Amino acid sequence: MAHVFLPYVLRKYAGGVETVDMPADTLGELIEKLEDNYPGMKRHLIVDDALKPGLAAIVGHTATRRGLLQKLTPDVEVHFIKAISGG
Amino acid sequence: MVATFEPKTDYKVVGTRPIRHDGYDKVTGRAVYGADMKLPGLIWAVCVRSPHAHAKIKSIDTSAAEASTGVFAVITGSDMPKAQSKLVDLGEGNINFKWASNKLMADDKVLYKGHPVAAVAAADRYAAEEAARKVVVEYEVLPSVTNVVDALAEDAPILLDDLVGDDLGKDVNNTNMAAHERHEFGDVEGAMKTAAHTIEREYNMQMVHQGYIEPHNATATWDEENRVKVWTSTQGAFTARTQIAGILQIPISSVKVTPLEIGGGFGGKIPVYFEPLAALLSKKSGRPVKMVMERTAVFETTGPTPGARMIIKLGADANGKLVAATADIWFEAGANPGAFIDPAAQCVYAPYEIPNTRIDGWDVLVNKPKVAPYRAPGSPQVAFAMETAVDELCEQAGWDSMQFRIDNASKEGTRRGDGVLFSKIGMQEVLEAATASDHWNSPVGEAPAGKKRGRGIANGYWFNIGLKSSANLSLNSDGTVQLTEGSTDIGGSRTSMAMHVAEVLGIGAHDVRPTVGDTESIGYTDVTGGSRTTYATGYACWIAANNLVEELKKRVAILWDIDENDVDFNDGVFSSKSEQKKTISFKDLAGKLEDLGGPANSTGSVDLESAGDGFGMHIADVEIDLKTGKTDIVRYTTIHDVGTAIHPSYVEGQMQGGAVQGIGWALNEEYFMTDEGSMANSSFLDYRMPTSLDLPKIETVIVEVPNPLHPYGVRGVGETPICPPIPAIANAIKDAVGVRLYKTPMNAGSIVDALK
Questions:
Q1: Which of B212, B416, B418 to mutate to test the interface with A (most CBs of A within 10 A)?
Q2: Is the bond preceding residue B745 a cis peptide, omega within 30 degrees?
Q3: B144-167 pLDDT, tens digit each
């Protein structure tokens, strides 16, 4: 069961809660299930069958480089944040 | 699955201080920078720039310029390919090519003073400048806005008519607000009500520039096969290639970028400026075109970091534990969206464990140049607000501010302001090192008559990144190794890369000859930025070196007629596991490859997740002249967790360089804007950066909490050091003279005013 820490703008689709739990084996499957359960979320996360440009998914403690193919371990925490590098 | 590594300490090369490979070329002037570029038939180009901060272009007449002596080509906004307004992933962020193109050359409207409206290529620079003066532009001057308050006012002039702002997910038209974002967890309001002590303050900061000594430059050719070649000063050849191809609307395979030596960047040389313009002028003229920016244009039109308005509120319980925090952050984006409010949100509370937090950030357009990354973009601003608020909270409650920072320090499992959980981090170890440092345990000392001394401390944070890097190795017959890697070398990184290879191969750092490749001689590599280079490119070098060892084991197997699984390698010597007397050194083997299969090459590439968070604390002692308000730094110490220091001198250099830039930002630097929206101090004479004569030796304390995500434990250190100086100095000023400043720069005038 992945624990999804919802970005603030997505919380309105889930009744205002901070986190939701969702069974999923991959990040792509997780986003599909989020959309099934909370319609409207997907367009904030996916464009052209990939993570939205400039968006990063944090799985556990690290920003995944596998995109929607990223495998999810049980009880992992998932975040969606802006992808930023620095100077 | 992310690979993890156990920390080691018995290194032969890592942790030593070899002389940098590029040292002789740099000090003798042999190193080739953009201004040195020469090609057969080369011509020069310059820009015609707007004298107004905001104006409609009614007409442009280039006929006199085109008829001018020696002129080969003139371009205006109508020559720029029309890029679609769409966000595209740039690897370490995103880019909208329409805005990126418009930043380089105005279309129907100028958005900041110095905005290019045309470019002229001629036989030499002087002919180009003379012709540029003959371009006639008719403007309709519009009112301008140069700060976030004016830009968000109801009657504010709108910069981009087609901008659709994002206000917490809702579209907003007719606005200068590109984005409003929020991060929130816990019960912030409820927790704040329970706080025994609270503080709420507003902070303001002026825009500042990275101040790299080498101006932007580019030389380009556009040949008959529509192949574009660019030589430039850039922090990332591949990212430059993506931008050039996107702005010119041509395939990336048509563009070759050769990175030249770089005279500083600090984030400001990630965006391109002249590269597409030089290419278009080359296409039009049929000649190679060279452009080198003047200093005024560097200030007025390239990469500053955002000016900011911030309101911070903190709440702590009676025992001195933070229970809640809120931050409202307005950042100046310049003339196009993208003001680093996201990294600011990630960084603002990072040194502290706070169970209930909210952050609101606004990305606001103003009539100034589009901001660019600058060492930990967004983090120094919020560090100024957060770290001075922490000090003031402690002062009000009667708490020791160092002990407060220790008691509230973030650790593994702490939730960052954007909700992300920390893994193993070194904040607590940094604070332990700070309290054990000679500086912290020495008195501030007595000031001479008419002056007062004070001490300030502050934390800093940057998350560091990983991303993509590539490295190639080729073994020479004399036992030396040729290394080609993709990261442009700003701070001595090619030597650090060589050290990664040498450590694996059991040879000396100078037995490895490192070269920075162009986009056609090395695999994709992301920018030198984000404190990623030693971490990610070093990792790629480590993989390439290990792959070379595996290749050489096959050659040893041929030499000894044994199975390659029977070959071992340790400390630069190959041996047989079954027959221990059989040994051959790495160097001796290199001389025998002729009969063992010929050239031995290898490659390494990575696409890495997070790099390992970087924390630091600075201690600043200041001495203030009560009459003039002049602040002297009398002692300054930087303490940073760097993971493992591959080359300690370069790590110290990053710590000292970041501190000095932060000190300049704190005390002197600012974009001083006129009412008409012009920068009044666009030269190094008037834009006051600190020099070696202004500062004491910056002391360094390297804390090494090895990063389990890197084979040698590297975290990255390029950015965190610029975060603590501004609040550390603000806190020191308060300690010295009893007044607290909430605005940068904290220059002599503002101190005198505060003391009145």
A1: B418
A2: yes
A3: 999 999 999 999 999 999 999 999
Interface contact A17, partner B, CB < 8 A: no
Residues of B in Cβ contact (< 8 Å) with A44:
169
The predicted model scores a pTM of 0.96
Per-residue pLDDT of B235-271, as tens digits, reads 999 999 999 999 999 999 999 999 999 999 999 999 9
Distance from CA of A83 to the nearest CA of B (A): 5
**Residue B617 bridge partners (DSSP):** B459, B639
Would you call B747 helix, strand, or coil by DSSP?
coil
Assign residue B601 the CATH number of its domain: 3.30.365.10
ipTM of the complex: 0.94
Q: Which of A3, A11, A49, A84 to mutate to test the interface with B (most CBs of B within 10 A)?
A: A84
| B290, two tokens | 């060279």
Give the domain range for residue B550.
23-31+465-607
Phi-psi region of B93 (alpha: psi -120 to 50; beta: other; left: phi over 0): left
A7 to chain B, closest Cα gap in Å: 7
B319's CB contacts (< 8 A; 6+ apart) are none
Number of domains within chain B: 1
**Closest residue, chain A, to B423 (C-alpha):** A61
Arch. (CATH architecture) of A2-82: Roll (3.10)
Q: Is residue B507 part of a domain?
A: yes
Cα dist. A5→B189, B659, B675 in Å?
20, 35, 45
For chains A and B, CB pairs below 8 A equal 114
